[in-house]
């Protein structure tokens, strides 16, 4: 059960990190963007660690409190849950 949960969190985190990159590139080009709701939903569903990584790697959404504080908090919760599973 624990390894499956770690794998799930890793995959969702990777997806969210890629979405953060895509959204940043679209923002630069003033194109259609990925909704904040989508990004936050992926964070809640297990991708918060990838969201934090994407936020700081691509300097994206760092000034939005719901991302700057929400993703790290969710990431800590996800880590806590994963540790409890092992």
Proportion of helical residues: over 70%
Tell me the radius of gyration: 13 Å
User: In the residues, how many domains can be counted?
Assistant: 1
**What share of the residues does DSSP label as strand, in percent?**
under 5%
The SSE string, one letter per element, is HHHH
> Which blocks of ≥5 consecutive residues have pLDDT under 50?
none
Overall outline: elongated
Distance between the termini: 8 Å
Q: What structural class do you assign from the helix and strand content?
A: mainly alpha
Average residue pLDDT? 92
Number of helical stretches of at least 4 residues:
4
| Biggest beta sheet summary | none
Pfam family, one: DUF1294
Keywords: Membrane, Transmembrane, Transmembrane helix
Protein name: DUF1294 domain-containing protein
InterPro entries: DUF1294
Can you tag this structure with a few keywords?
86 residues, mainly alpha, elongated, DUF1294, DUF1294 domain-containing protein, transmembrane
What does this molecule look like?
- Pfam families: DUF1294.
- This is DUF1294 domain-containing protein.
- The chain is mainly α and 86 residues long.
- The chain has one domain.
- 80% of the residues lie in helices and 0% in strands.
- The protein has 4 helices and no strands.
- The chain is elongated and about 45 Å long.
- The model has no long low-confidence stretch (mean pLDDT 92).
């Amino acid at each position: 059960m624990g390894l499956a949960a770690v794998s799930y969190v890793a995959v969702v985190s990777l997806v969210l990190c890629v979405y953060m990159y895509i959204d940043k590139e679209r923002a630069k080009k003033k194109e259609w963007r990925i909704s904040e709701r989508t990004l936050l939903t992926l964070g809640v569903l297990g991708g918060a660690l990838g969201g934090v990584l994407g936020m700081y790697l691509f300097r994206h959404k760092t000034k939005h409190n719901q991302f700057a504080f929400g993703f790290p908090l969710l990431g800590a919760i996800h880590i806590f849950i994963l540790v409890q599973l092992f």
